[in-house]
């Protein structure tokens, strides 16, 4: 009997990585992980910035809408507008130095409460109010806007105060006066220098900020005086400016 010899080929032992290959792999992995973290950080920062902008815009819109509505009604007299507006329908206090300003607006409705009253203050009270309400028989509506800390507050004629905005850093007011009787403002003056009976427009400036730090780079902004300001924190800020014509002039 003839035997055949079968040769079995053994697998070659696998080769390991060299130190150079391991170091290159580790370096590439670290670059990949670093890039991933950078991408995530940018995403978080973008989301934070967008949220801050949205919050500032929402708060600014509420504040501006309420203030503008009452400024437009300054001096209104429902029963006797033909003889002119209220002489004390517009008043202001200039802040000392760089301090915030204050503006007070008055309007007057008829003596009889209507189903839909023509005047509603910044806190939702009607003038005159229904029987038994806090404004029953009250025909003069007063709204005073002022900045206390970082709260832009509105105080009505009853002495009740509500915060319209909680992240306001500055509030400045200028009065557009008409000295040529053409119905257009010739210059804008502060409360100490403006003759309120000549005012035909009001210019307001608000600086709003985000609730907390929302950006990674200190954002330079322009204040109400037109100067560039570099803050000491990382909050986002926006300067809102609006000119409102006075209707009852």
Model description:
With 249 residues, the protein is an alpha+beta fold. It has a 5-stranded antiparallel beta sheet, covered by helices on one side. It has a 4-stranded antiparallel beta sheet with strand order 9-8-10-13, covered by helices on one side. The model has no long low-confidence stretch (mean pLDDT 84). The protein has one domain. A hairpin with an 8-residue loop joins strand 1 and strand 2.
State the major sheet: 5 strands, antiparallel
Strand adjacency order, main sheet: 1-2-5-6-7
Average pLDDT taken over every residue: 84
Q: What multimeric state do the chains show?
A: single chain
Topology of this protein?
Blueprint: H1 19-72, E1 90-93, E2 102-108, E3 119-120, E4 126-127, E5 140-148, E6 151-156, E7 161-165, E8 168-177, E9 187-189, E10 199-209, E11 221-222, E12 228-229, E13 237-245
Antiparallel strand pairs: 1-2, 2-5, 3-4, 5-6, 6-7, 8-9, 8-10, 10-13, 11-12
Summarize the structure.
The chain is of the alpha+beta class and 249 residues long. The protein contains one helix and 13 strands; from the N terminus they run αβββββββββββββ.
